[in-house]
Every structure is written in C-alpha cells, then in structure tokens.
Amino acid sequence: NFLLLFLFIFAAFGIVSWQVVGILFIVTLFLALHPLPGNDSEVKRWMCRSKIVQLLYMYFSYRIVYTQQAKSDAKNQSPWLGVGVPHGAMPFANVLSTPAIESYLYFPKTNGSYPSFVGAPADIVFRTPFLRYLTLFKMCSVDKKSLIKELGKGNNVGLVGDGIAGIFQCNSKNEVVALKNRKGLAKLALQTGRPVIPCYSFGNTAAFTCVYDPFGIMEWLSRKAQASLFLYGGPLFLPIPHRVNITLGVGNMIQVTKNENPTQEEIDTVHQKILQEVEGVFNLYKNSLG
Questions:
Q1: What residues form the membrane-spanning segments (predicted)?
Q2: By three-state DSSP, how is residue 97 classified?
Q3: What's the whole-model pTM score?
Q4: Average pLDDT of 40-48?
C-alpha cells in the first residue's frame, strides 16, 4: 500500500509511467480481494499441518508451554476465549498457536461436533495483500459479532489483547503490555459466559525491529485508519523476522458467570483477574525462557 502511494507520487513527477502504476494497482486489488477458502475447507485443514507450518515452527523453535491443569481445562472446557500479549510488530506466538492447537490439542466432541480453534486478527489483515494469506489458518474477524458467532458454534477463539496499542509500546529493551485499560474482553466473557485463558507471548517483540515516531502521530493515524502504520524490519532491515525463540505461555483458565448486562464493577473484577494471570504466566516462565 505504501509502495503504491510512492508510485503515484513518482508517476505525478514523471519518474515512472502511469501504465506501471495502473498494472500494479490492479495486481494489488486482486491480491487484496480474491476469495480465500472458508474455515471448514480441506485447504485450511491441510494448511494447519503443512510443511510450511513445520518450517515456521523450526525457524522460531516454537513451543507452547503449560501446566497439566491448564492443558486439561483448555481441552475439556470448550468453548473459551484465549488472549495473548504482547503484540509486537507481528504476533508470531499467537499466529502459530492457531495451527498448533488445531492440529495437536484434540478437543473432545461437544454437542455432537468437534470444536475448532480459531484466531481472530484485525479486520485489515483480511484485506492486506500477502498478509491475508495468514488467514489460511482458521481465522475469523475480531469484531464482537464474529466472536460470538464462533463461540456459538462451540469453537474456541484466540485474540491479541493489546492490538495496535501493543505495536507502539514494543521495543528491544523492555517488554510492555498495553492491556491495562482494554476491558472489552472481560465484558465479552461475562456477556457470553465463556471462560478466559490468558497467555503470554514470549519473543513477539524481538522478531522485528520497529520504527515509529516518538510523538505518537503514527499511533494516532493507525487508530484512525484501523491499520498499523509503522516501519519494521529484520536482519539488514529486510521484511524477514529475526530468528528468535518464540513461545506461548498458557495461564490458568478464568471462570466467569454469564451476565448479558454486566456492571462496571463485574467487568473490572474479571479484567483484573486477566491482568494478574498474564503477569503470573510471565513470572512463571520468564527465567526458563529468557
């Protein structure tokens, strides 16, 4: 998208031809809008177990760590909401958890069907060339209606708790989680009566080096556009992630009592439990995982 913007500018000054810009514009539209398989397709089942995914696991030495109780709860108490933080430039720990959980955590049959695990990225991911191919893993929109629909099917849903805010908080020196004032997940859990599994994503913030202005302008624009507007890179600042260890630490399940109209106090209570469990997961595994 930024490339097209620069090409339009170059074309206006006669540096490149409008024919080149037109061709690239059509190709971009095709890559952004052509249909992709649905979550129930064999393509997505194959993708979750494909050689591509195995290579990504190896590149990042990918692991999911958990206690036996956390695994048992996740396996036997579908459907639930999973939340992982921090986001980083790209939440690799969260993205890779979708095929990993779908392929290796065999959920028992519930109400006559087997639950799936579905990731919930930002809506812009579904319309961004190349990036949208991540939705070849099982994915749904992060909007409330879509999340409730998947939970209603009996599926488990995972999302990134700090979103765009988490991108602009990450740096190479400190792990920062922008979750303190984001209480939508707690409210949704109460409204649906579904438990929450807090997780911590180790390595997300180290996979890419992020560059953004210190004045918050790019963050403000990102919020307005509902898209991440910043620069990032890996080795030699190429769009290839650093080869770092990526691990998803799974916390204890938080049970809630269904209330379609929760009070602010109830929301705050559940939200505080989520924050405490995220911190607990980090403290539990930080020394062993570095």
A1: 6-33
A2: helix
A3: 0.89
A4: 90
